[in-house]
Design brief:
The protein has a five-stranded parallel β-sheet with strand order 6-5-7-8-9, sandwiched between helices. A two-stranded antiparallel ribbon has the order 1-2. A two-stranded antiparallel sheet has the order 3-4. The protein is built from 14 helices and nine strands. By secondary structure, it is of the alpha/beta class. Strand 1 and strand 2 form a beta hairpin. It folds into two domains: 31 residues; 307 residues, Rossmann fold (3-Layer(aba) Sandwich), CATH 3.40.50.1110. The protein starts with a helix and ends in an 18-residue tail after the last helix.
Amino acid sequence: MSRFFSILKDVWFIFLITVLLLGIVEGILRHTLPKPEDAYRISPGVGKFNGWEAEVFQDNPDTPGLRRGHKGTKTMRWKPYVHWRRAPYTNGYFNIDEQGLRQTWTAHLGEPLPLVFVMGGSTVWGSGVSDDDTLPSKLAQVLSQQGRDVRVLNFGESGWVFTQSLIALMRELQRGNVPDVVVFYDGINDVTAALQEHAAGTPQNESQRRLEFNMTHGSGVRMLVAILDELEGVRKLVHALNGAPAPDYPDTLPADIVSVYEANIRIAKALAKEWGFDVLFYWQPIVFTKRSLTEHESRAQGFILTAHRDLHLAANGEIATSTMLRETPEFRDISDILDDIKAPLYSDFCHLSPEGNAVIAETMMPDLMAVLNKRAGNPAETEGLLEALNPGD
């Protein structure tokens, strides 16, 4: 028996040494070899990119606090069906409640107000901006300025695709938390996830979910292969030896992305009809189409993979020519809404400054006013969806 334990001890020691050496080699490879995708960026020589160097953060006394606060929000918790949601956090700029929802500006908390859900990814959540400068907060502010106070909940979460937002809405309905209006603001994450997986309709970073599943359901060899495949340094070495293939995607992927998007709209409209709320959909803007780029915005664009830009522009083209979307009055393609604004708006290829979020909110405001007026039994006085918006019929 003592010999058995001695052998077991030796095996365990060898295993620990192997893991330690693997970690050291991985660290060396990770920090010395170039990323394989660097050669396939729009501007291959752009080097490192830091969104906090954007013009929108320069000479802003709040920038140090925003950076510290944003770093504090990185902790994620597992969430059934949608995979992840931020952990509670509080500071002067970022405040997240027990449900993982970020605080939103509200005119007052007295009498009951119409309830608006805003769903989307980090562009809704508000990366790089304070609670009061997120898109949901800006939307609440512009509506209040029009004399229409509402309570807006920010359901945005970093990396979420349309389907995850749709599932999050379904979970709220299961709990009896039924809104008056739901706003979906999507596009960027749906394209990014599709590029990662070469398939539309999946969440981002599904390779990580597969790795986690294989670690608990596969053989030891299969698990080891999966782990090695995910090590960044190992991948860099393999690509350095064999050459990194240019990122690419199937020719049908842009149309597939829009097909999934259209299907999700149909599902959301069916939920709206059954539960009696109104719903609005917006395909969001991105730096690739902005005609007058600042120096930082140009670097932000150059840092992105050429395939990523091409796929997004192709998806934009499919959106613009979709018969189904053209015949859906609740849908707006606002991907070009920032194209002719010369002022700095982007901190990276997709996240906006407070001023950028304000432009988006002002664009959405007439549609929200029309919906809210309709629900209040008042004729809509603003341009928007007007009488066409009636998912309850």
